[in-house]
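Alpha-acetolactate decarboxylase
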Amino acid sequence: MTSLYSQEIYQLVETALEELSQEHQRGKLADAPVPNQYYLVRWITKSLKQKRFPRSVTDDLIRWQKAGRSQGNSVMFEPLFRKILAYYDDFFQSDRSNQITDKQIEQFLDKLETAGWEVSTAEELVGCGKVQLFTEQPNSMAICCGQCETCFDGELLMHPMSWFVRGNHAQLIELAWQAGFMVHKRTDYKSNVKYHGEYLIYPGNRGEQLAEIPLGFEPTPRF
């Protein structure tokens, strides 16, 4: 059976944190932000060289390696990894049902409108070149009308669906999490829908890249 990205990224960060904790327990590493950061930067580089993890998470390791080299301690990997682990725990290690239905999406769009967002599902947006939507509100989200039909088998989401977003992306990610959706960013701004970024939601929330984590999400310590 082919393993899933959600399982592989979970295993990666869990392994990193477990091995970091083992270094603390052996007395080889002080449990403090800077030593932890140095250890994890080296751990990431070593994991890449050894090809320790599946190819599906290689891009994450490369991105983290570059960030560790160029941004230094401004990107702290220990809290980031803890947040990733807890977020995927929240979706896949709990009793949460990750099946996504058309009704759930409709309810989410209603919630967005209540929060002052402008919502559109009436336009063809995917596979038709550059599109411009004329909206009055600063925050807007659009879904391709074609995908509202083709992404479902009955009531269940069976294919990835694009959400085109302008405005308060952080609020969109927060509200999506509260509604039971993992969202996966393709672009902040330059999608084929002018002035809108693009996110994907996947069947069963099983994305093929790292999900966006809400700013308000706080992990529960495990190690």
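thats it. The longest helix spans residues 5-25. Residues 5-93 form one domain. bye
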